[in-house]
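Aim 2 progress update. The chain analyzed this quarter is reproduced below.
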Amino acid sequence: MLFHEVIRATIVPMQERLQEGLDLAQDEPRAALRATCRSLATIIVTPRIAELRRLISSEAGRFPDLAAEWYALGPGQTVDRLAAWLPSLRPHLSLPDPQVAAEQLLWLVVAAPLNSLLFLPPGTAVDQTELRQRADVAAEMFWRAHASTEE
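Predicted structure tokens:
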């Protein structure tokens, strides 16, 4: 189906960019978290992603397999990649369940800006400075929430 190809053509390069960033995140742990949050924001919070999310969610009832594929390849895979990466921030962060922490991190970074973009006219540009600032705040909140008491 054409929509399945559109999903794959959109999400696969995004996941590759995310993984490249995670593989290179060798900085001091707090800086690596901030860089990862910025990367998440700039990869995910785009007019194209907002338009596809809008379309897929509106058609999820008629095409549940399409919605399931979107979720598995997009948010699901992103959470899995983050969950595999987050333990590298130990012992600085206490993460008893990296999968839950990854889900929290993802949505802390992208939920508000992506949701606001969903309700703007298609093609609306994203303010990159504001997006980076929001990502930095999300990284700091996550860091403080999960800071290890061992430090």
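The helical segments are 2-24, 29-44, 47-59, 64-85, 98-118, 128-146. The mean pLDDT is 92. These observations will guide the mutagenesis experiments scheduled for the next reporting period.
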